[in-house]
Amino acid sequence: MLDLPEPDILYAALIRRDPAYEGRAIVGVKTTGIYCRLTCPSRKPRPENCLWFADPASARAAGFRACRRCHPDGSHAEGFVKLLVRTLQDEPARRWREADLVEMGLDPSTVRRAFQRHYGQSFLQMARAARVKGAMDSLMKGERMIEAQLEAGFESASGFRAAFSRLFGHAPHELRGQGGLRADWIETPLGGMIAITDDQALHLLEFTDRKALPDGLRKLSSMVGGRIGLGRNGVTDQVERELAAYFKGNGPTFSVPVALHGTAFQRQVWQELQRIPAGTTLSYGDLARKIGNPNAVRAVARTNATNRVALVVPCHRVIGADGSMTGYAGGLWRKRRLIEAERAYADGT
């Protein structure tokens, strides 16, 4: 589902030099035989002279050569970004420092900006999250706290507790019990997500880098009397399967049951969000009218922002009345990619 957007979308991004497409698309210019980043300062070609590629290697294979102004090979995800992601996958417990990047011949500030463009967070933040995930996996296997801490590359117990608490809103030992709700990590093409489920429903689904995630987990824990433990169940498995189908482009809807924690008004808004088909967007005003309360636009916007079940309750499909990409807690870069990718569902492709 996250393949290249339609050519007209890419051309519009080229004209406005949209940095959101860094690492996602390359333009080849037929009249010059050159390929460029979409942010290249060079004069823009006519749309009929453009060919679109996912990466520099594809452009080179088609006979184009790299632009000397924007250097698409040097700063593209084909280079150090992919290398670092691959290294992180091979060594998830490694404790990365900026000095490690310098030893690899990389500038930490350049790496930080590139990862922010591609993933909405720095490489060091991604590395820390990978270590926490490793610790979470160890705890779920029944390993002792100190073993999980050391296997995840945390030198001190206090650092381990702090990193875990930043993500989950609780210290690791508070999630060890057999709670009624289970927390597990699900990987997606747009980053890791935390799923909270019980045997009947999905209660929370958030990207791990969302700043409000710890607070959301604390509130949910309070609502259920602190009964959240690490682990998964059949509902978690269903969420993971449906997310995989969604991102592969063959699962536009989710059937997993959802427990919506909020007021009657909030639940009404969230339920209406679930009725928005993939490939369709609404404004906040449209949403207010659909629930029969056209004057509640601001309340609808606030409720949209407090949604704790990302993707399954698709708050990313709500945009500004002028068509602009308004705030999204999961990051505007994700919102753009989701809306663009979902056009394939609307087109039936």
Automatic annotation (TrEMBL):
It holds the Pfam family HTH_18. The keyword Iron-sulfur does not apply. It comes from the Bacteria. Residues 103-178 form the HTH araC/xylS-type domain. PROSITE patterns: HTH_ARAC_FAMILY_2, MGMT. CDD domains: ATase (cd06445). It catalyses: a 6-O-methyl-2'-deoxyguanosine in DNA + L-cysteinyl-[protein] = S-methyl-L-cysteinyl-[protein] + a 2'-deoxyguanosine in DNA; a 4-O-methyl-thymidine in DNA + L-cysteinyl-[protein] = a thymidine in DNA + S-methyl-L-cysteinyl-[protein]. Signal peptide: none annotated. Keywords: Activator, DNA damage, DNA repair, Methyltransferase, Transferase. The keyword Nuclease does not apply. Gene3D superfamilies: DNA Methylphosphotriester Repair Domain (3.40.10.10), Homeodomain-like (1.10.10.60), Methylated DNA-protein cysteine methyltransferase domain (3.30.160.70), Winged helix-like DNA-binding domain superfamily/Winged helix DNA-binding domain (1.10.10.10). This is Trifunctional transcriptional activator/DNA repair protein Ada/methylated-DNA--[protein]-cysteine S-methyltransferase. It comes from Paracoccus onchidii.
